[in-house]
Amino acid sequence: MYSSSFTGIGRYTFELIRNLAKLDSESEFVVFLNSPEFEKFQAPAKNFRKVEVDAQHYSLAEQTNFLKILNNQKLDLMHFTHFNSPLFYRGKFVTTIHDLTLSFFPGKKMNSFWHRWAYELVLGRGVKRARKIISVSENTKKDLQKLLKTPADKIKVIWNGVGREFISSASTELSRKQLEKDFGIKKSYLLYTGVWRDHKNILGMLEAVAKLSPSSKEEKWNGELAITGKANPVYASEIFAKIRELNLEKTVIFTGLVSDADLLKLYQNARVFVFPSFYEGFGLPPLEAMGCGIPVVASNSSSIPEICGEGNAEFFDPHRVDEMSSAIWKVWKDEGVRKRLIENGLRRVDDFSWRRMGEDTLKVYRIVLGD
């Protein structure tokens, strides 16, 4: 699941490997990779080596070819950084569960009876047979206990970290001309960054933006909404249709996929970051926005209040569009609220460290190896 593109589980795996290399020079670590990551991967220390797998995620090859490769390595302990472990692997292993999104929001892809059955089988067997489960939030731990009846003492909650590049006093302020040249953004803007999926509630966010009408008739919202990410064809048509329905064609800017450097610029120059999700296992983008000194308006569902922390974001019910719209307007216009959220957010990100995640994960390995 390793990726250097810094998205989701790929980023988690990248940071885990990088920090384990700093923390443990005695153990031998084997990193299993698909192409093209296998070719790109450079071992971070002498006690790391790589093995090529080339089995598509969630495929039959992952259950068979990957299984054979794992068995050939004769590992003392395997860490699956996502739920998709081979059903018949009999070695000692630990699994990280990031969320149970597919259980609550199966979406429009891979939701046939066969796919649902396979998902539930692999998830259930993996959680049951793992020696320890690492959960990235208390919320995911509760979901595991509720849905899969996983014993509480089997689950260790280890929060993700926030990249140091997102916690810097040196911001890159871009002129309006530069923002327009680089991203097509002409005005002060709201920012959303994330995948295009049902549980992300992008349609609700669009409706909230369309309702940005303050009580005072003298005041008028005159901003834009910047949305990053690749247009997922399964969900893009309804998003584009909603934009046309709400007459937001001149308000919504799609930046497409952006580099890490450009993502940092978008965070640092946004007026408000909006995180409207119905469900998140952790939710890293609000913390990245906080680290960049941008006030956050976020959903009050699932793990989001746990991660953002009380008083560090303006929360709303994601099912209530008017409430979301009011929260956005409040943070957009009220300088006192903005100042408080920015200051609190900068303090909050100090609670999240990739190094601490590596240290706590290493402790889990040693507990399991000592059993």
Give the gist of this structure.
By secondary structure, the protein is of the alpha/beta class.
From the structure above, extract its key features:
globular; 4-stranded parallel β-sheet; 6-stranded parallel β-sheet; Rossmann fold
Secondary structure elements and their pairing?
Blueprint: H1 8-23, E1 29-33, H2 37-40, E2 48-52, H3 60-73, E3 78-80, E4 93-97, H4 101-104, H5 113-129, E5 132-135, H6 138-148, E6 155-157, H7 176-183, E7 189-192, H8 202-210, E8 224-228, H9 233-245, E9 252-256, H10 260-269, E10 272-275, H11 285-291, E11 296-299, H12 304-308, E12 314-316, H13 321-333, H14 335-348, H15 354-370
Parallel strand pairs: 1-2, 3-4, 4-5, 5-6, 7-8, 7-10, 8-9, 10-11, 11-12
* Low-confidence sequence ranges: none
Dominant shape? globular
CATH class call of the largest domain: Alpha Beta
Briefly note the structural class of the backbone.
alpha/beta
CATH topology of the largest domain: Rossmann fold
What string, H for helix and E for strand, traces the elements in order?
HEHEHEEHHEHEHEHEHEHEHEHEHHH
Whole-number total of structural domains: 2
General description of the model:
With 371 residues, this protein is an alpha/beta fold. The protein has two domains: 8-161 and 353-370, Glycogen Phosphorylase B (Rossmann fold), CATH 3.40.50.2000; 164-351, Rossmann fold. 44% of the residues lie in helices and 13% in strands. The strands form three sheets. The chain has a six-stranded parallel sheet, sandwiched between helices. A four-stranded parallel sheet has the order 3-4-5-6, with helices on both faces. Helix 9 (233-245) links the parallel strand 8 (224-228) and strand 9 (252-256). Helix 8 runs parallel beside helix 9 (233-245), helix 8 (202-210) crosses helix 13 (321-333) and helix 11 packs across helix 14 (335-348). The longest helix has 17 residues, at 113-129. It is globular, with a radius of gyration of 21 Å. The protein starts with 7 loop residues before the first helix and ends with a helix. The mean pLDDT is 91.
